[in-house]
């Protein structure tokens, strides 16, 4: 077996395991270790020499500042959740937009985007906001399709708006600056948000009865706006600090954790028992994320050593495929994979192939990272897997999943349009990172 064939075999094996719902870290790590062992057997190098290449691969991703950054961003999300900071954008938006047709659905999209951005978890957002927003809309007579789908798609905004876990993983695996990736997602994230709000307006215009007037809100707009300051401060520190170059991702995460912790304690939302839960959950989630990073790095190293990704990239170039065609084919492959595999699995599976393609075609890795994360965002609501859809279905048990997918289909059309715009106009992804102060 040639080295390239070994690499292709590893990719196919990983695809099969992920499709069978084997955990990402277990599948990736198992194939990577088995691949290195088989490589040692097939080559003249011994086991000791082959496995000696592993520590250098992990040296970059296991640096103290990288580990600390991942743990701090995970902790920030948990503190913001338990301190009630993550839901404040929704609370304010549903007061301000209540009189607008479909205002509660729009508020849900905005609230989910804010929650997912601060927490860094799109699925966690769908679970929490599904329990808050969907019952509220149903109580006021909203159509179940609109009520559930607006929350499912709103949660995906956290994939693009910083601090995004997917951008962190992409940055660690591709070697790109995480600060630039965070800022690169801003304009695409806002474009996606505008598309979602446009879908709601269009849907209500076509079917006016799906979103009745909910009546006046219990709080005034001034009160709602005043209560909005904690999440806005956190987002301003992350985005403003990174864009200006005053803060690194590690420093921004540390500052925000300190501020969120102080807010939670001063508002009596974080007791000693609650803090124990916060740090316990953060340790488990952070360790799981770092384990995926480690195993994905090993798998990426295995495929890179085999040369399989470069063989595929050279084949595409010598075959005369234009760069735009290659991107379109890669996007189509990710969309298909999104029907069967969770986003983290797609990211791990795609990187060994995408990195050589970027190198051979001279693509901007920041722009390509935005495209890839946008594809993973779409995968969260793509049938038949659509993790966000099934999460919403699990917290609103009276609504069938097929009805949620029926509502999500309208948003998917606009998401695909946004994806095409991002592919055709890379400046939307590269403008802000290029102007950053370093």
UniProtKB/TrEMBL annotation:
It comes from the Bacteria. It is found in: Cell inner membrane. Keywords: Cell inner membrane, Cell membrane, Membrane, Transmembrane, Transmembrane helix, Transport. One of its GO terms (molecular function) is transmembrane transporter activity. The chain crosses the membrane at residues 66-85, 105-126, 146-172, 178-204, 225-244, 282-303, 315-337, 344-361, 367-392, 404-428. It is a multi-pass membrane protein. InterPro entries: DctM, TRAP_DctM. Part of the tripartite ATP-independent periplasmic (TRAP) transport system. This is TRAP transporter large permease.
